Amino acid sequence: MAGLLALAACHPPTDPNAPLFFEPAPVPPDGMILIPAGPFTMGSDKIDTEGRAQEFGAMKPWFMDEHPSHIVNLPSYFIDRTEVTNAAYALYLKATGAPLPKGWTTVNLAPENREKPVTGVNWYESDAYCRWLGKRLPTEQEWEKAARGTDGREFPWGNTFDASKGNTGATRLGSVMPVGHFPEGASPYGVLDMVGNVWEWTDSWYEPYPGTDYRSDDFGETYKVIRGGGWGGVGHYTLDHFYRTAYRFYIDPSIGFNDAGFRCAKPIPKAGPPRRHPAGAEAD
């Protein structure tokens, strides 16, 4: 530290208001990505002017629960680069003796399936896995920022839908794929599979956004939000509407689905301010 003090004295910062010391960026745990602190645009102000939700018999109006577009300021956090795999979940089951997810068989651990996302897990099972690792499920806000970055993009890769960049209903692969299979579909931070492959549980209840005038009987602490869209898709579920970074869906947290999985997030503890040493003092 004494050497740094001497160096700073010889080369003072050009900005007189700049701090003498800079906190290094936190190092992500293995398999995770740092999402830096700061604001991003969440939600949208889009309107279904063509009445397509009614045309397709959608269970909720399009766009309305995304209103209004608003700024959310988040602290730094880590998020898994990919969804949790069958292989990783099997280690958890062996270590904890937790019950098998619905539909889990030895087929899940066949060589061709080990790196596919674990599916069939409900919210409680997903939450328990993350907490076993000292993590948690991402909030809805954390999920959306990791998916769309700070420029408000419609999809992780930009504003134009491209079925070749994710395992969506429009891609028509007909099955879940190994995690990271579509690297060209990465988000601005390098997070993979944020749309398509499997829906992902979040930590958040399905609640209205601040300032909205949209009302729903489903708002409240009954349903958990899932994000991202899955591989399955027939009829209108192949539309790019369901793979937008702002799209919200919600289900009973006690139910698991064959196209729903999860990834984990990890908050970063706030570091205290760096200590300033008296001039000429040696640091420990």
In short:
This protein is α+β, with helices and mostly antiparallel strands and 284 residues long. Helix content is 15%, strand content 13%.
Feature tags:
three-stranded antiparallel β-sheet; 284 residues; 9 strands; disordered N terminus; paralog of FGE (formylglycine-generating enzyme); 15% helix; alpha+beta
Secondary-structure map with pairings?
Blueprint: H1 2-10, E1 32-35, E2 38-42, H2 52-56, E3 70-74, E4 77-80, H3 86-96, H4 123-132, H5 140-148, E5 199-205, E6 224-227, E7 249-251, E8 260-261, E9 265-267
Parallel strand pairs: 5-8
Antiparallel strand pairs: 1-4, 2-3, 4-9, 5-6, 6-7
Shape: globular
Strand content: 5-15%
Q: Which stretches of 5+ consecutive residues score pLDDT under 50?
A: 1-13, 277-284
Average pLDDT works out at 87
The run of helices and strands is HEEHEEHHHEEEEE
Describe the structure.
With 284 residues, the protein is of the alpha+beta class. The chain has one domain (2-267): paralog of FGE (formylglycine-generating enzyme) (Alpha-Beta Complex). It is built from five helices and nine strands; from the N terminus they run αββαββαααβββββ. It has a four-stranded mixed sheet. A three-stranded antiparallel sheet has the order 1-4-9, with helices on one face. It is globular and about 50 Å long. Mean pLDDT is 87; it is low at 1-13 and 277-284.
